[in-house]
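Need a sequence for this fold. Nothing fancy.
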């Protein structure tokens, strides 16, 4: 980095996620978001650094679980029970996320 800085090239260290979560600037600026995951309990993440009208965007919710919205989306696309079951039997979709849970264990 000294070489780059010496040549007038802006640069900085790249922090790990753990380093970002404990960095004094991140802590002081309120970028750390605490939220609850239905699968993993309490988690932390980095919030939106940009403020709109003096406010940061809310954390929203945790990322969806594998297959959490599959059936809902297929129904919105007009599929009925038989069509969804056929996709599931063909291995094209999972409605339960069991495949994902087995891979994680």
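Here you go.
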């Amino acid at each position: 980095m000294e070489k780059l800085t010496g040549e007038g090239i802006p640069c900085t260290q790249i922090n790990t996620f753990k380093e970002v979560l404990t960095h004094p600037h991140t802590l002081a600026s309120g970028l750390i978001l605490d939220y609850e995951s239905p699968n993993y309990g309490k988690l932390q993440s980095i919030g939106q650094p940009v403020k709109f009208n003096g406010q940061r965007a809310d954390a929203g919710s945790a990322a969806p679980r594998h297959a959490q919205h599959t059936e809902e989306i297929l129904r919105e696309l007009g599929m009925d029970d038989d069509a969804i079951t056929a996709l599931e039997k063909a291995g094209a979709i999972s409605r339960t996320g069991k495949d994902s849970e087995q891979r994680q264990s």
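For context: Residues 81-89 form the longest helix (9 residues).
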